Amino acid sequence: MEPPGECENLFDGSAEGYKRGSIRQSPYTDISVERPGWSKLLILAGVSTTVGLSVPVGYNIGVVNTPAEIIKSFCNETVRTRFDTQLSENGLELMWSFIVSVFLVGAAVGSLGGSVLADKIGRKGVVILCTILAAIGAVAFWTTKAINSIELLLAGRILVGLSAGLTTSVVPMYLTELAPLHLRGATGVLCPLGVTIGVLFGQIISLQSVLGTEAFWPHCLAAFVLPVSVSALTLPFLPESPKYLFVIRKQPHVALKQLQKIRDMKEEFLVGEIEDLKLEQQDNELNAGHTWNVLKVLSDKSLLLPLVLVCSLQAGQQLSGINAVFYYSNKIFKEAGLSKSENELATIGTGICNMSMAVLSIFVMSKFNRRICIQISLLTSAFFLILLGIAIIYIKSYSWVPYLSIVGVLGFVLCYGLGLGPIPYFVGSELFEVGPRPSAMALGSMSNWGANFVVGLTFPLMQSTIGASSFFIFAGLVLVLFVLLRFYLPETRGRDVIEIVELCRDGFASKPLRHRENTLQNIDEAKKLDALQNV
């Protein structure tokens, strides 16, 4: 952390005080100053949003697969009773596809809504809204069967979809804005961790031996209301983002008080962070001109490269075929000779592997650079996708091939969780300043849900036409993403957002790796200049 005198040299409160391209180091590089850690408020915010919002997102993704036939039967019987008609097999499949996919549509709409609401009602306000939408959706699921209403089932799926979209676009941004620089990666992976845990819980709760039965399926769909309710009790105690209060709401005194509470430190130990907030506010005022929105972000050429990176990462996460791999895992385990009950356990075991990697990613994101993690994740994921495709094609040719396919599934899930799973969710908050950040995060989240929707529509067709060769297409898309990130993704770990923005300002003419070397050189030159001035 720089002492007050040095901070005043970097920022004098006027537009001239901040020069674009100046280098800012971490406010806690002085080893004599204690770095802020996991304070009680930061832990509360992380646990509350993960349990109450992120887990329900994953739960609503994973819960509908096992009881699908039971819910289809309910829909068919409801149509027959209320409208005195019988759905054809194709009609029933179409209705079920609509019920499943309307969640993704709601999530895409919610993602875009997050770009506006994050600045209008605040990050904490969006968290409260997500909780309300999820709770109402759970009530709709609970009452669906009691009043024979398919409309309520659809309404519930739309509401939880809206909540999911808002969650994935705003919660990672909220947590990374609360966290000190060195914990930004650890807090950023909490949202994908919650989603992963939610998918696993959805798979377990929906088993026929638990709640996935004809009598209890409404309770199965609505069970996520329990973590939502527990988390709702903590909402009054959650802090608002100091960056939002300082830069967007222009309430510096309120922001400072909030920052002190979150860090659990006195003001004199937060001078560096306060100066960073001033610099970001200065940059926002100099460049915004007017309020940021999706259209402004899309039309700003200086934001082209980071926007492409965020949207490519978010879409690439789904285009890697992660959902297709989980879909095929049932067939793979069956071919390996597992019984139905063993198959269910193996599928849950795969989910546990996925969750374990999500937990491990908290440590990985804190200790290792983003570029290294994502590149290793992409290359190894592509390798296991190719291995899986080959193994499935020859699965009946040799007795040992089914076991090779299991290696492909588990290998892909583990490598996916190393970087491709967690990084897309929070990297936008590291590439964009506070002003355009909500819109950029919203566009990224919409890309994720949109790609999820596209894969859901096209994978059945790919499966019926080219079969296991589908995985070669997924591997190709993963490798394309690798090439893009290899040349254009700057390292964001431990670096100030303003510096990252400078690296990407020239669009595809930017050279982030070369600039990183220049940045280090500039820091050394700045230190030498300071030393000469102090002599």
From TrEMBL:
One of its GO terms (biological process) is fructose import across plasma membrane. It is a multi-pass membrane protein. The chain crosses the membrane at residues 41-59, 94-118, 125-142, 154-175, 187-210, 216-238, 372-395, 401-428, 440-462, 468-489. The keyword Cell membrane applies. It holds the Pfam family Sugar_tr. Its main location: membrane. The keyword Ubl conjugation does not apply. Keywords: Cell membrane, Glycoprotein, Membrane, Transmembrane, Transmembrane helix, Transport. Residues 46-493 form the Major facilitator superfamily (MFS) profile domain. GO terms for molecular function: fructose transmembrane transporter activity. One of its GO terms (cellular component) is plasma membrane. This is Major facilitator superfamily (MFS) profile domain-containing protein. It comes from Phaedon cochleariae (Mustard beetle).
